[in-house]
Amino acid sequence: MKIVEKVRDFFWKRAVYQVLSNNKRRKKSISLSEAKSVGIYADYTDEKQFAQIQSLGTDLQKQGVSVKTLLYVDANIKPEHIMENTYLGMFTRRDLAFNRVPKIELLTFYKQFMQTDFDILLDLSLKSNYQDVYILASSQARFKVGKNEGPWSEKVNDLSFVYANGTSLTEYIKLIMQYIENFKSDNL
């Protein structure tokens, strides 16, 4: 590993530990039937994947759940065909600081998303990125659900899933929804 990468990793870990120690969220396991608000975080990879995320958000809204979606675009520009609004925001590589965490001062929607006290936060990103861990660590959500990424998962998720390489987003969403629909609410 190059020196620059080691320095970036050091500052990234420091940022994650800092938000974890300052995060005063109220942990609580919540089933989907009890949830009034859900945050969805995902990587934007293509239009098909975005349509699946939108479909999930629409289904949840039909159930009376308030939904906000935050997308990470692994590029320097945002896709032109997606319009940001009060329920959907995006950030790109250009919006990340040297230590791979989002530059909060540049991202109004990101800041609002992180401060929202969601009942459930779903991490639907199938790839592992540094910012995924940071976002889960800094979220105020009561119940955080995401992929199992080794030692960081137990620090940032309340419920983690292991999935096989090649698992589609559709399969991953089905797996998560099966669990949280039938989840017994209880304090963590």
Please provide a written account of the structure.
The chain starts with a helix and ends in a 7-residue tail after the last helix. The chain has six helices and six strands, in the order H-E-H-E-E-H-E-H-E-H-E-H. It has 188 residues and is α/β, with parallel strands linked by helices. Helix 2 (47-62) links the parallel strand 1 (37-44) and strand 2. The chain has helices spanning 3-22, 47-62, 108-115, 130-138, 151-156, 169-181; strands spanning 37-44, 66-73, 88-92, 120-123, 143-147, 159-161. The protein is 38% helix and 18% strand. The longest helix is centred in the first third of the chain and has 20 residues, at 3-22. A six-stranded parallel beta sheet has the order 3-2-1-4-5-6, with helices on both faces. It is globular, with a radius of gyration of 16 Å. Helix 1 (3-22) packs parallel to helix 4 (130-138).
Helix content: 25-40%
- Given helix and strand content, the structural type is alpha/beta
Shape: globular
Q: H/E element string?
A: HEHEEHEHEHEH
Indicate the proportion of strand residues: 15-25%
Biggest pleated-sheet summary: 6 strands, parallel
